[in-house]
Design brief:
The protein is an alpha/beta fold and 158 residues long. It has 2 domains: 1-50, no CATH class; 51-122, Rossmann fold (3-Layer(aba) Sandwich), CATH 3.40.50.2020. It has helices at residues 13-18, 23-45, 69-80, 95-101, 132-143, 153-157; strands at residues 57-61, 85-92, 107-112.
């Protein structure tokens, strides 16, 4: 799903057809996911205005890429906001995924591109998901800081 003012689904039609996903199922799942995008946006934004990305350099950060489908949707969503430049930053991804994403970002920074790649989690000691409550707390803290001051958020979150 690509969020934004007008959320939309990004569907790999070839994959959907190859695994036999019916159009009816796909429509239902898209509707459910759009509702989830709206719910999470309301929760995480907490009344704060959307940041205008137009003519800015935007860095999209992911914890790692497996197939690239999710981050491709994110990059397309960012592109719709007309930034000057889009940079993708990830610690790890298979070489094929990095190559496939080259046209979706102006630059890609990927620390490791191992040939033997099974899952992103294999490269982490702790790959626990971050809860909505943790994200809400971090966003609230960041909103209270002066512009440009990270306030040690990353270090405190670890």
């Amino acid at each position: 799903m690509v969020d934004g003012e007008h959320p939309e689904a990004v569907v790999d039609e070839r994959l959907a057809k190859a695994i036999g996903v019916s159009p009816a199922y796909l429509r239902g799942e898209i509707a459910r996911q759009l509702e989830e995008v709206r719910r999470r946006e309301a929760l995480l934004r907490a009344g704060r205005a959307r940041i205008d990305l137009r003519d800015r350099t935007v860095i999209v950060v992911d914890d790692g890429i497996a197939t690239g489908g999710t981050v491709r949707a994110a990059l397309r969503g960012v592109r719709r906001a007309r930034p000057r430049r889009v940079v993708l930053a990830v610690p790890v991804a298979p070489p094929t995924a990095v190559s496939a994403l080259a046209r979706d970002a102006d630059a890609i920074v990927c620390l490791e591109t191992p040939r033997h790649f099974n899952a992103v989690g294999q490269f982490y000691e702790n790959f626990a998901q971050t809860s909505d409550d943790e994200v809400v707390a971090l966003l609230a803290r960041a909103a209270s800081l002066p512009p440009g001051d990270a306030g040690g958020l990353a270090a405190q979150h670890e």
